[in-house]
Sequence to fold (543 residues):
Amino acid sequence: MSCDGASAPAMAAGNIHHHVSGDSCVPKAEAPAMVHDPVDTAGAEHDRLSGMPDDVLLDILGRLVIAGDVHTVARTSVLSRRWRSLPWPQTTNVFLDVGKFFPSAEWIPARRSRFWKQHHATAGFTDALARFLAAPASERVIERLCLKFILTRRDYVRRIGDLVGAAAGAGTVKAVEIEIVTEMESIASDVVRTMLGYGDRFVHLVQDCPGVFRSLTKLTLKNLWFSDADELSNLVRRCSALKFLSLSSCGFRPDTSLIIDDDEAPPPRPPVLTIDAPRSPLEILLCDFCYIAGVKLVQAPALGALRYRALLPEDSSPISFGCAPSLKALFLGQRQDLDNLVKLSELLINGGQLETLFLSFNNGRIWVRPELPNKQLRAALGGLKSLCLRELSPGCNLSWATFLLEAAPFLETLEITIWNHICRAEWRNKHRESSNLIWQQPSLDFRHNHLKHLSFCRAFQVEKDLPFARLLMELAVNLQTVTMGVKSLGCQECTTALRTYPDLARSRLRFTEGSEYADAFVKGLKRGIPTSAKITILLSDLV
Fold:
């Protein structure tokens, strides 16, 4: 099981004012009863395995645990009292996924009438968890209990919480990692009402089972909206062991008092996610495509990595740093108002000493304003070792990024990725220069002494990167490697779309015509530049 997004659905402005209780988005019909043990039937009397000596049975259980097949171990304990009486093997890490309890791989159906499958799988999951935690133990301690379950009926979820909380309280479980999914993987109708309902269910779990959250070290949530933005902020403060928090397609309900009775007025913006937890051990925060207005780090002393991929266009800086002295890695992806470009020197004040910076542009216009490498910018990027510029528009002039090299004298790796998805209409509509940018070329005497690795990930018309690549090769006097192109599109739909765009296909296939073209490309790249860097041209494996 993985205990670690997809973009959130479009939000209808007319639905913003609706609010429902936690269980309003599920049918009122009773689900099947909890699954019980089929113990010692006539068929079980002929179970040859159960007749084996204890040491043999323990060896079988141990091998299953080592292989990570805790699901089979738990089911084995259900099938026979003989197995349940054994002292279970020492287990360091336990992974249990509710998906294993579905009869087929389609374990999150979209139709409410089929919610009984979620209830049935949750019942099996819960019973297996109960048997595993209650098995007579030889003083065993689970260092890491990792669970993935469905946020379904309150009584089902509460039983899971009670089991885990009791085990954590007794010291049987040291650390708990939880991934919570909703009954519907994609929510297409009545979005706000449904997602607010799931948010209420999660709040009920926190209230009903506080013991779970005292040992919680990792939490992953998806498709949950909260009526009160303070719910998540308070959760971070209360979870004294929480080190990892991932939010995907989650959000906050906007203040309904701000709604203007005007069809042309934009809907009110949701609140920001505020982290004000001076004693929190939170180290990693991931916020992907959430319906929020940004992240405000008032006090996050242990936070080392932050990823924020915006869903809404921003009209101001998406991140606010108060106290985040440990921050080393930052990933930002957003759509910025063209009249309010972000100045990194202002954004990164109080943001720690970054070592890794990812900036993603989603095939849109550049939202970072080039600026002179002033004192504030050098302070923010002075320790930067790795810089990645992702999903740049194919028509973007890359020269604007040179100011980042001047501000980051110890940069070692620069990776530039072009948005290659020709299967999307946006690829054809946004081949444009970044005319909203104004930048200055680096001074004639500027040289970068620490840049070692440079890569351009562009699938089509790779020669477009030649001018900027040559500029960087001149500036980086100790450059060791230059890599250009991509080996695979990584998208089957793009591969299919190649048939529709023969010109693009030819621009890509030129690299497969043999080594002569690649050799000529490398010579053109190095012409007149004294460099010992190794040049690698990735040859396409698609035709």
In short: Confidence is low (pLDDT under 50) at residues 1-46. The chain has 16 helices and 19 strands. The first strand starts at residue 93 and ends at 97. Residues 234 and 277 are 9 Å apart (CA to CA).
